[in-house]
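Objective 1b of the project was to move from sequence-level analysis to a structural picture of ligand recognition. The entry below was assembled by the postdoctoral researcher (A.K.) and checked by the PI before modelling. It contains the amino acid sequence of the target and the SMILES of the bound compound, pyridoxal-5'-phosphate.
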Amino acid sequence: MSAAHPPRAEVLIDLSAVRHNVGLLAARAAESGAETMAVVKADGYGHGAAPVARAAVEAGASWLGTASLAEALDLRDAGITVRLLSWLDTTGVDFTPGIASDIELSVSSVQELARVADAAGRAGRTARVHLKIDTGLSRNGCPAYAWPDLVKAAAAEPDVDVVAIWSHLACADEPGHPSIDMQANRFATAYAVAREAGLRPLRHLANSAATLTRPDLHFDIVRPGIAVYGLNPVAQPEQLRPAMTFRSSVVLTKRIEAGESVSYGHTWTARRDTTLALVPVGYADGVPRTLSGRMSVWLWGSRRPVVGRVCMDQLVVDCGDDEPPLGAEVVLFGTGEVGEPTATEWAETIGTIDYEIVTGMYRPRVRRRFIGEAGRR
Ligand SMILES: *Cc1c(COP(=O)(O)O)cnc(C)c1O
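Corresponding predicted holo structure:
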């Protein structure tokens, strides 16, 4: 399927895959009576926040989640009206426009509560907040010793409506890890304390991994991120479909003789005469240089090794005695359905997680194209 205009560096985002994945996650959540908050922080994990958000809502998400208020405001500017929670900002950020735009805010301390209440006063409306309890991740969230004061202050604050209490799991991607139940127990205690303070909040705790493996922890809302994009954080098989394909095309082919070496440092030498294909993507386009000598691409009907170093703007594929035509499509990673590499395979090769691979694809030089919009095939 070489395109009429062969791509240089392009990520194809399949929104029908997003809808499929969210449909699956929302169905799991619904079995426990929970709603689904699709997490679209970091520009939708590098996939494009607004189009992903629309697809997620079409498929049954009734909430969206972002890290920063700026990300949440961008979604409102894009015309997205569903409930929206943002959870991590610096101390200088003014919450007023967020409250005015009906964005719900996470609060981890009495200082933050005071800032939100002030902003609510300025916005002339009640702020909807989700109080975050740190149950053991030791990152964002209120420590247990400060929790009773926070819930009491929140309950007494007229400009603030406490919608939910929430927390985040440290090891949900390792099902059976003892910290999961420990965190769930601390979450139950925090909930009891909130109720004693007179609050009647919703609860949410589950990321993708817990959405897939711990229905008992779904509570009122689940917060899947990575699974929305079709990447599976747990070993158990799921019918998720990766939404991102990274592709390029052949710009030049040439024969080299046995004994000739390829790319900077001459780290690879041809053992026999062979055909090389040049592909105009490199580490500036999101191909980690540490994949040099350890990656292959899908080209002209099969997997072929990338030889020599990955450069800033180009890499070289060994095609043996095959001669792919100029403009032939090169899939760097995709769904894996036909045998092409996946983002997960890249991550495993270089010792990271696929989250980092896909979020790293948001780059000015990489064109993003959406396919599979609703109502189209
Ligand atoms: C990123 C994030 C999620 C989603 O996590 P996944 O592992 O991608 O499902 C959920 N909750 C919070 C607080 C997050 O920061």
